[in-house]
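Protocol step 4 of 5: obtain the predicted structure for the target chain.
Materials: sequence only (see below). No template structures provided, no constraints applied. The aim of this step is simply to have a reference model before the mutagenesis design in step 5. Sequence pasted as it appears in the construct record:
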Amino acid sequence: MSNRNDEDIVDRIQYKQALMTVISNFEEVLRENVYETTGQSPHVIEVRDVDEVTRFGATGQVHLVTIDFSSEFGAHQTMLAIKFSSSGEKVFSEASNSRWLFKQLEYLNYGDLGTPKLLFAFPEEKILIYEGIHGDPYYQADIEPKKKAVLAGRLLAAIHGSTTRLVDAESYENLMALMLSDFPISALRREAIGKASSIYFEEMKDSIGGGNIFGDYHQGNVILSREKQNTHLQKIYVIDPEYMMFADNCRCEDIANFFVFQLIEEYKNTRSIEETRSALHFFLLGYNQVLRDFNLSLNELYPHMPLEFHLAYHIFINIRMRIKRSRQKLKGSKQVNKRSVQDFIAEVKELISLAEFLLKERPLTS
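Step 4 output (structure tokens):
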């Protein structure tokens, strides 16, 4: 046991030394950090220590590296986020999205809205390096719920911008048809859901809420932080722009993505959607705050907001993922727990009922 512990200590020391060597190659980044925090241009940079935390996400592995370094102006600390992607093509695509997003938010110049700056992209090595952000994901941030909902709405509206286009309603109609084609429900129920959905497709054809969307605007990709130079300024960041889409997508797709897991959890635990309704109200207040700067409003973009359709569609996606995971689990299991299977079936039925309720009653936007 002692030998194993000694080996682990040696491995950590060697890893840390290698990490310090890598970080020392980014002197320009550290010089910029000193200039931004002190207003002085340093000549000497020395890396003193590094600390690293690894996080695994759906889109890749991220190393959050805290760097302690010094210059002739004193001691400093900064953070880098080093992301490992699955392919060079994805690195190239995400880098392009990230630069567009950074310029978009920089141009709008809202002091409380941002995205980490991309510092380096290496497609061959499948690595992206961003400036690090000190903060907590939206769902964990200990901030007044109304305030953070407004901030998240403001940030998404700034990402969507002032562009108005007709929504590509046909693409959503095709997606729902494909979703329902082999969904595990009766033909009668499938027909009822299709009929309820068709109303939304007709309404989307009359809306001008189409444009660029983030594609993965969920509560884990929204980070709340405090700026060092002004502790009273609450700043909100969006990270991981891998799935941005530049087309005629519906803005409500991103809004639904942001709330769907919150909605599912609330409904499962309380059979209510009131907390989600309240958070959505303040989110849309924040969204409209930014739209007003573009002389727009959600009411102008959408005669009838199709949010419930997108929420229902996301719930159907969630059900498919649950079924897939359950089948994989059963394949690797020697003994089937009958009670667990019954609970799972009951949960799926509840989610289908929630999706139907959203489509037919429009409880969040009516």
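Step 4 remarks: The radius of gyration is 23 Å. Residues 58 and 255 are 20 Å apart (CA to CA).
Proceed to step 5.
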